[in-house]
From TrEMBL:
Organism: Candidatus Accumulibacter aalborgensis
PANTHER family hit by this protein: CHLORAMPHENICOL EFFLUX PUMP RV0191, PURINE EFFLUX PUMP PBUE
Membrane-protein topology: Multi-pass membrane protein
Annotated GO MF terms: transmembrane transporter activity
Name assigned to this protein: Major facilitator superfamily MFS_1
Xref: InterPro entries: MFS, MFS_dom, MFS_Efflux_Transporters, MFS_trans_sf
GO cellular component term of the entry, any: plasma membrane
Protein location: Cell membrane
Gene3D superfamilies on file: MFS general substrate transporter like domains
Length: 409
């Protein structure tokens, strides 16, 4: 079967594997109220426990993703999906304190560095050029599907079993992702390196770091992830606090609301990429990022409002913060030569997920500073999210006007 005909099946395989490998993604955010109480954590410590996942990602991604410029990305993906299963199993068996939990959750984030972007690289390396932009949008949107399913199944099961069993289930799902890619995706040839000498990574990194367009996308992704993952890390805890202070049917199952908010990332991300095609990538990004910032401030000012008003506002905000996601990633990929994509993605992921680490920690610090038991504390937390996406908008403003793109499927 030709590549042009088989690419939808290949896309389905990678998206399914991505969703399976992310079964444990929402475990710490969903269990944060329980773990905070069990281990007597401050809000700042809670932010660190959520953010350490992305710190592990940052440490590994420059090596693992740039490695895909020199060998088949499928090999990196398989090894790190297996590592993800090991990290979940380790958390289930040995995380009996804050310090131990930090170590195992850090390892889980390190494993994500070898599955998310290397999975995208393995996919796009096997696709015809005409299918790469929209396939990238679907793949990156599947991150939202996987995260949403993670919130959903955890919400349905967490009151029925002890929390270590939840991590064991996630480990089994990671093993399923390994099996799926191993069986359904044939090995490929190592890509031709862009540098003059095979293995000369220094030349690759120098070229990428001199590219103003790549750096602007990296800054935009930093702001996007600051907002997005700060929001996801604290949403269940915020809804749990809201239910405690003002009980309402709308916030009875906070994990369900978090799942719905995360699922909204899928259509928002895909539509965002289509909007970038239609109106121009720079123009689109410079419009939707301030919109998300304003909605974050609106949530901050909505403290004390009825849950019937608050929950819809949170869902609209959750959708808005994903209108830039696929547009950013696709914009980086389609303007970067094939031989340099791994290194560009490594830098993009490193800087972007530094924002994913900063977001939860900044939110937690704001809570501690203004009072985690008060509306002022939670309002301050949401203001930090608005600051994150505002920085992303500033970074994208440094990019100038991008060349027009073909919207062919």
């Amino acid at each position: 079967m030709s590549a042009a005909r088989s690419w939808p099946m290949l896309l389905a395989v990678f998206c399914s594997a991505e969703a399976a490998s992310m079964a444990g993604f929402a475990l710490v955010p969903s269990l944060l109220p329980r773990l905070t109480q069990q281990w007597s954590l401050s809000a700042t410590q809670g932010g660190w426990l959520s953010g350490i996942f992305f710190l592990g990602y940052i440490v590994a991604v420059p090596v693992l993703v740039s490695l895909t410029d020199h060998l088949d990305a499928r090999r990196v993906y398989l090894a790190c999906a297996a590592l993800s299963g090991l990290a979940m199993a380790g958390f289930a068996s040995f995380a009996d304190s804050f310090a131990a939990a930090l170590c195992w959750w850090w390892l889980a984030g390190l494993a994500l560095a070898g599955t998310y972007m290397p999975g995208l690289k393995a996919l796009t390396d096997r696709l015809p050029v005409a299918a790469q932009s929209r396939s990238t949008a679907f793949y990156t949107a599947t991150f939202g599907v996987g995260a949403g399913l993670s919130y959903l199944w955890i919400e349905c099961v967490k009151d029925l079993v002890q929390w270590p069993l939840l991590f064991a289930i996630a480990a089994a799902c990671a093993a399923l992702a390994v099996l799926l890619v191993w069986c359904a995706v044939p090995p490929g040839k190592a890509p031709e390196p862009a540098s003059a000498r095979v293995g000369d990574w220094r030349s690759d990194w120098q070229s990428v770091l001199r590219d103003r367009r790549i750096l602007a996308f990296c800054g935009g992704y930093f702001g996007h992830n600051w907002e997005l993952f700060g929001f996801r890390a604290w949403l269940v805890a915020y809804l749990t606090w809201t239910q405690t202070t003002a009980p309402d049917l709308w916030t009875t199952m906070p994990g369900l609301i978090a799942a719905l908010a995360t699922f909204l990332a899928v259509p928002a991300s895909i539509l965002g990429n289509e909007g970038a095609h239609r109106w121009g990538r720079s123009r689109w990004l410079q419009g939707v990022m301030p919109f998300s910032c304003l909605l974050g401030l609106a949530v901050a000012l909505s403290g004390g409002q009825s849950s019937r008003l608050l929950v819809p506002l949170l869902l609209v905000y959750a959708a808005s913060m994903n209108l830039d996601s696929a547009a950013l990633t696709a914009g980086l990929l389609i303007g970067t030569s094939t031989g340099m994509r791994g290194t560009a993605l490594a830098l993009y992921s490193s800087i972007g997920f530094a924002g994913a680490f900063v977001g939860p920690v900044a939110f937690g610090m704001a809570l501690d500073a203004f009072g985690r038991g008060s509306h002022a504390g939670w309002a301050a937390g949401f203001v930090t999210l608005a600051c994150g996406v505002a920085f992303g908008r500033w970074a994208i403003g440094r990019i100038g006007t991008l060349p027009s793109e073909s919207s062919s499927p």
